[in-house]
Amino acid sequence: GLRCEIDSQCLWVARKHKDLGHIFGACPDAVAAAQKYYFRCLNAFLTEFRSLGSEYLVGDNFSAADILFCHCISWANAIEWLTEAVETDGTVT
After folding, report:
1. Secondary structure (3-state) at 54
2. How far apart are CA 32 and CA 4, in angstroms?
3. Closest by alpha carbon to 90, among 32, 61, 49, 62?
4. CA-to-CA distance for 42 and 65, rounded, in angstroms?
5. CA–CA distance, 86 with 66 (Å, rounded to integer)
6. Which residues lie closer than 8 Å to 6 by C-beta, 6 or more apart?
7. Is pTM beyond 0.85 here?
8. Are 7 and 76 contacting, i.e. CB atoms less than 8 angstroms apart?
9. For the stretch 63-73, what's the b/e string if a residue is b when 16 or more beta carbons lie within 10 angstroms of its beta carbon?
10. Burial of 8 (0-12, 13-18, 19+ CB in 10 A)
11. Residue pLDDT, tens place only, 58-73
12. Average of pLDDT values for 31-50?
């Protein structure tokens, strides 16, 4: 679902075309599009997660899904995508 989109279609695309541009080809437009898509996916994911009413992504226990999501948030933060992106209503821009 959306967690895979955030990881593979957003963060990894940015990694390939920015940090590893010397291997895969630098493409600032691809990085910008990946960042925009990241926020679309993250907002959709957060909306869905909030509707579940659970503190965990899958069931009533902490799982690998929670770890992957935390990894994706940490990665986005590390590449400064989240620096000033969180709005007061909890959405991201």
Report:
1. coil
2. 19
3. 49
4. 15
5. 20
6. 38, 41, 42, 45, 69, 72
7. no
8. no
9. eeeeeebeebe
10. exposed
11. 889 999 989 988 999 9
12. 89
